[in-house]
Structure formats: structure tokens, C-alpha cells
Amino acid sequence: METRIKKFGEVGIKDVGSVGGKNASLGEMYNELTSKGVRIPNGFATTSFAFWEFLKKNDIQTQIENILNELDKNAYSNLEDIGKRTRDLILGATISSNFKEEIISEYTTLCGKELKEVAVRSSATAEDLPDASFAGQHDTYLNIKGNDALIQTVKKCFASLYTNRALKYREDKGFKHHDVALSVGVQLMVRADKGCSGVGFTIDPESGFENIMLLSGVWGLGENIVQGVVTPDEFYIFKPSLAQGYYPIVQKNMGDKKLTMVYANEKEKTTIVNIKTTKKKQLRFVLSDNEIIELSRWAKIIEDHYKKPMDIEWAKDGITDEMFITQARPETVHQTGSKKLIIEYTLLKKGQLLSQGNAVGSKISIGKAQLLKSPRNVGILPVDTIIVTDTLTPDWDPLLKQVAGIVTNKGGRTSHAAIVARELGVPAIVGCGNATRAIAEGEDITISCAEGNVGYIYQGKGTYSKKEINFSNIKTPKTEAKLILANPDSAFQLSQYPNSGVGLLRMEFIITHHVKVHPMALVKFNKITDNSIQKEIKKITETYPDKEDYFVDKLSQGIATIAAAFYPKEVIVRLSDFKTNEYANLIGGKDFEPHEENPMLGFRGAARYYSDLYKEGFALECKAIKRVREQMGLTNLKVMVPFCRTIEEGKKVLTVMEENGLKRGVNNLEIYTMVELPSNVILAEQFAEIFDGFSIGSNDLTQLTLGIDRDSELLMNLFDENNEAPKQFIKMAIQSAKKTNTKIGLCGEAPSDYPEFASFLVNEGIDSISFNPDALLQGIENINKAEKQMANKNMVHG
User: What is the pTM of this model?
Assistant: First the structure.
């Protein structure tokens, strides 16, 4: 016999046809994962049978079909009218006394002694379309309490099967409206109004990188995060070392969290309301590190159970401090497995920067800005329209398929706007803050999501190139092809390119763009002479009781993001190699840097690390690296010492590193040195006794061999890595490395710019060559050609 209601304990994933994907998943987790420690709030679901019976008893099914037949399926000019008439028909219908009694009885049993607040969620079900995704198309109601309120809300959920966005979605997908029913899930409310809530993806939602999960959170109820009303906190967790018991929170980004959604007073017409978040709470992360790890482990359990990447919703009860999973569905945008075909966009010409925010996707789009406050009565938009608005809710969905781009003031990369934009392949930039003020109605704009995690909106019509790359056609060379990287924002995307790891991670970019403050200005804050600089540093570090920890935290997160992206391949991070004039440009730097006439040959590299002028700052660099390796478990990270002039200097640096917890050989730590001075080549065999590997820096080696300051415009025509003198030094360095069984690579532009230079390195037997991302594929091609020529030559002489 068909039933109208099923408890969560009675349903599983096999019941999608009866209770919809959302409720079937809740039942599945409640039954299968509770024993593994995952908390799921209990509840029950009405069935598709109950929905069809409701329509039949009210004799409205034929009327609904007749109204839907009037829908203009070309321009959707009457979508709003058709949707309203259909919903009104359902809202005016009556729930039978039998069905009403069953709902009230189940609600009473669920609550126990006294009636409690519940979340009432719509879950679309298609008997013949069990894999159909209806995410975000139907309504959810929070903080519903009392028998009458619950019955009315069930009816509202039934009506939401015919929201404008749901009607348009089914038409786009080719689903017949009369094949789809609506199940209503009734679930005990988690008191997140007094705590926090959010969403999570068990893969990186932008790149599809599978080793990372992203959790986002806001204070109060989770609707703010889904609707994109506030910018949430974001936490990136590295899954492989999570399973090994580490605390691999590789990145934490604080959102503004300006509003907190809470239960409304009984006097108010609505059940939920937004209030302003206090400044103190805005400057606090919504979750502690322990809570982030607990939630991450639950997300991994859920992913393992379903055997696919998942999109979850979570909530923390502010009264009991317990966390719960309130929803889970398969992630719909990215297919699992490595990507063999990508389309690479490169911005060639751009106008003035108008605004920036979180990039969604990796495309570039050019169009006319249309500032909209609401999706109502908009009609058909020109195909080059870029919608600019405050925030996007699911009501906008019917419009989004026809536009060239989306820009919003509010929202994070897990908001509904971001999720829908990804699914549609429409470039979007969300959480800009000032977009509606910075962009004028009707002006030509260029939006670029091709520059990493940050998206940029430029004035005017820019130009860009678009290239399709098929990785399956690229042969992996015997000589390892590695990347030179600096920006953590592009790491997940670039890790999917053919590579053997990162041969040079430039720490300077992370310090300049993420840390921004000179380390000694944090160590000796009271020695700063300029009050305005002190104020600026106080503002930047206001969420950190310990200013030094700010440096360690920001630097470790940048390094960890890149190490995680390429794990388990080796990632070699070079210790900071700013020149004194560059260090001085960091905030607070002028009080701690000497003035030099020729910084290129001055107080740089290894000499700084044991000097009293910088030793305490260097200790913070070591702490950051130690945190990445030992706390986050990213032991694929290796360290490289730059500009090491003598053997004695190398030993001093190794001693200082050991004092700061980085000892060569402990926890498999390898320490390399750059080969960029003639002394490194001449004494290579002795350097090999104290270091684990070499990396030739062809730029510095060339300038120091030829006596040319590579910053000098007057001598630029003489700077040539292909010159025989530096090539002889490179040859000697490779020979010494082979003799001492020491790994050796080279970082620089020459092997991609000059095929004959790549051929020279391959013939000499170098182990690896590192390229900038834009030169990697050309570099691999040059290596493959050189290896083929060498093989042919050996065959002839063989």
C-alpha cells in the first residue's frame, strides 16, 4: 500500500522516486553515517504519492496542465503570469483531513514533549528521472513551529514546484512538468540562528581539483550564504593529509559577514530576519580549527559513502555547540578524473580597472553592463549583456542562461549565483562590494576570470586570445618538466597541466601580495618611526593577537596552497630573495633596510638569514615552512637557499634553520641551494656535501659571469644566457652534480625561448628544467625534440 509519509529512518538513496533526491539523501545519511559520527537532524518526508493524491482530490491536475500549455516557450514573455496562476491554484486547494492528521502525528512524534521549530524543505522527484538535479529550484522554509503553520508550509512547498525558475529549468532540460512531483522534508531545526552555518564542496568548485575541499560559513542561518547576501568565511582543507591525522587547513579567508540571519519575533510576519553582525563577530572566523577539521572529516565520510564529489550544507547549534549536516547532494559541475582538454583564455589588452571580486570560471567576456535591481519584468536581454547587480537569488535563474556575464556586489564562491554560473558556463565575478557604484549603466566592460581566483572588471572592450589545449597529445619527456610558480591563486588550475612538480616556488610574491608587511616590522613593531605605518599594520593584523603569527599564518597558507596543488610531486620553495630596495617597499620596511647603491650584489640571499638585521624575520619564514610540513602534512615541500656565496655561509644558514626547527634529513626534509654564482660552480662538489640538490638560476649566473647588472638598460643587449661563458659554467655544474650523485635542475626562460638551449641541457644530462606557466608547453616540446635528436644520434653512433 502506498504511504503518504516516511520517516528518515525508513528511506535511503533507492527512494529518490518517492521522496526526491534531497530527502532520499538525508535518509541515506541518517541510516548509514550516524554510526560513523556524522550528525544528521532527524525528520520525515511526504511522498510523491501524497502529492499526486493532493492534486487529484482537489481536482486541479488538468487545470494545471491547461495553464502550463499556455506558456510561451520561445520568449517566456508570460512566465511570471503562468507561474503565479499555477501556484495560486495549489495555495487555494485543501489538504485532506487524513493527510493533515498524518503530518501532525509525525510532527508530534518528532518533537517529543513540546512542539519545536522545524526546517521544511522541498525535494523534487521524478519517477522516470532518478538522476535529475533540481537544486535551488524550489523553496525552503526555516523556523516553522506549530501544526497550522506546518500544514500551510507543506502547501507552499507543493506550490514551489511551479516557481518561475523551476518551470524554466524543466523546459530547458526537456522534462515534462507532469512527470515531476514534490516531496516535503520536515527536519528538526538546528539552532544555527545562535551559531553559524554554511556549505561545503568536497572538491575545489572552481578548478575541480579533487584533493581540496572548500567549506564556507556565516553567522546565523545559512540562507545568507546561498542567496549571496554576505561574503562568507572560506576554509580550504587538503584531503590526503586529513586522512593521515594532520591539520591541513591550507587556507583561511575571512569574509565580511555583515548580516546574521536569525529567527524573527512572533510579532513579525516573517519567520526569519537579518540583523547587523557586531564588529567583534565580523572579525572572528565562524569555526575554530578543531571544528573545521571535524566538519572536513564528516564531508570526507559523506564523499566516500557516495563515491563521488559532494555539495553539503552544515549548521552549528549555538546552544549545544554541536554541528550537523543538513543536506548533501552530488556536485554537478566537474566530472571526476584528470582533464585532458582545456581552453586557456589570455587577456591581451585591458582598460582601467573598475572593480574586482571572486572569479567564477576561467573565461573572459566582453559586453554591455546592465544594472538591474530585480529579475522581474526584464524580458529578453541582448546576448552581450553583462548583468551587474547587488546579489543574485534563485529568482534570477531564468535570465542567466542568456547573458554574457554576471557581476555582483555580494556573495562568495559557494553562493547560488556562483554555483549556477558554473553550471551554465557563464563567467561571473561575485562579492565585488562596489560593482553597482563603479560600473555605469550601458558602458562596455570586459570581465576577466582568467587571472586566478580574483576576477577583474575592466572599462571598455578589451582583447583576448582563446586557445584549446589537448594534454593527451603531449608526450612526457624523460627530463622532468617543472613549473616556476609564485601565485597560489592559480595553483589548482595549473596542477592539471603536464608537469613533474614545482622547481621554483617564489616566496616573494606571497610576501608582497598576501603578507604585505616587512617581517621585522612585526617583530620590532615598536621601533617603527612612522605612526601612520603603525596604524596601517595594526589594521592589517587586527584579527591576530600576535603580530608575528600573522606573518607565519599568511605565508604558510600561500606556500601550502601550492604544495597541496602538486602533492605528492616535489615543490621547492626558495627562501625570500628580495633585494634591500624591494624589502624596503614592504609596509614598515624602510625602518629596517639599509640603503645600497647596487642592491643586486648587496645584502641579499643567504647573507641575510644569519645577520642580526634579519635573523628574527628569517625565523618567521622557517616557522611558516615548518607549519606547512609538520602541521599540514605537506612533506613534499623542499627548501632552497638562494645566493649562497661560500661553503661557510651555507653552513651558517643550515645552523640557523636547524635552530628554527628545519633540520636537513629530519622528516625527509631536503634542502637545496641555487647555483647562480661562479663560486657555486667552482666549489659545486663541496656544496654538494652540505645540500641535497642544486637549481641553476640562469639569470643571475649569466649576469655574474659576464659582469652585467641585468637591471641595467644600457647593458641589456649584452645579457645572453646562450653565451658560451655561462654555458660552460652550467656544463661544469651538471658534471659536478653527476659526479656527486646530486640532483640538479635549471630555472629560466632560455630553454623555452631557445630550442638549442634546451637541447644543450638535455645533452648534458640535466635532471629537470623549470618553466613559467605560459612557457611550459613550449618547453616540453623543446625537451621532447632534443631527446628525440639525442636518441637518433645515439642510434647512428650505436
Answer: 0.90
